[in-house]
């Protein structure tokens, strides 16, 4: 139950270091940042990792968002979906693709590289067998590594969000 808070923990001020990191990339704090502000020494490097995944990765933004959205589905993270479905659209994914994520194997709206990423998301997030041939045919080692870190990071974030019962930010929920 929420009593004016954004998570099951009481609200705290965002540490100045986190505020500076967010301002440097033109972002306002979201409920995830505010909930993790209880551990500022951990929030700072996590923000650095998230920002590196978002702004410094070689793999296309569309493939990263596809990975994140499928991981969010597997984790049951409404919070991550609320934030990343709009980013997925901005990155070029269409409504049919986003509606078909949970049944991507039967859908014909995904490219071969997208299918490789979705299969890899299920390997990371649900223990499905890894298809090395599909990955190697579509993604170079840098891209595979970045997608591995992206998927693992968003699995961890989904679990943090669930454990701390972080509420979807106002204006993003249905």
Structure commentary:
Residues 40-122 form the Carboxymuconolactone decarboxylase-like domain. It comes from Glycomyces rhizosphaerae. This is Carboxymuconolactone decarboxylase family protein. InterPro entries: AhpD-like, CMD-like. It is a single chain. With 174 residues, the protein is an all-alpha fold. The chain folds into 2 domains: 16-55, no CATH class; 61-164, AhpD-like (Up-down Bundle), CATH 1.20.1290.10. The protein has helices at 16-24, 31-36, 40-55, 61-75, 78-90, 95-99, 112-126, 132-138, 141-164. The longest helix has 24 residues, at 141-164. The model has no long low-confidence stretch (mean pLDDT 94).
CATH superfamily of the largest domain: AhpD-like
List SSEs in N-to-C order: HHHHHHHHH
How far is it from the N-terminal to the C-terminal residue, by CA? 19 Å
Computed Rg: 16 Å
- Give the beta-strand count: 0
The coarse overall form would be: globular
* Main sheet properties: none
- What is the CATH architecture assignment of the largest domain? Up-down Bundle
Helix % is 55-70%
CATH topology value of the largest domain? AhpD-like
Low-confidence stretches: none
Q: Please, how many domains?
A: 2
């Amino acid at each position: 139950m929420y009593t004016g808070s954004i998570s099951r923990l009481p609200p705290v001020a965002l540490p100045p270091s986190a505020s500076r990191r967010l301002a440097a990339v033109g972002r306002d704090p979201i409920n995830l940042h505010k909930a993790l502000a209880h551990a500022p020494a951990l929030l700072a490097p996590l923000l650095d990792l998230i920002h590196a995944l978002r702004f410094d990765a070689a793999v296309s933004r569309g493939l990263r968002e596809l990975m994140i959205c499928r991981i969010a589905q597997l984790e049951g993270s409404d919070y991550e979906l609320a934030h990343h479905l709009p980013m997925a659209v901005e990155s070029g994914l269409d409504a049919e693709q986003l509606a078909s994520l949970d049944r991507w194997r039967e859908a014909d709206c995904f490219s071969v590289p997208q299918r490789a990423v979705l299969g890899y998301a299920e390997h990371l997030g649900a223990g499905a067998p890894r298809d090395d041939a599909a990955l190697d045919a579509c993604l170079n080692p840098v891209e595979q590594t970045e997608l591995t870190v992206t998927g693992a990071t968003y699995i961890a974030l989904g679990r943090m969000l669930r454990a701390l019962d972080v509420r979807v930010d106002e204006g993003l929920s249905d």
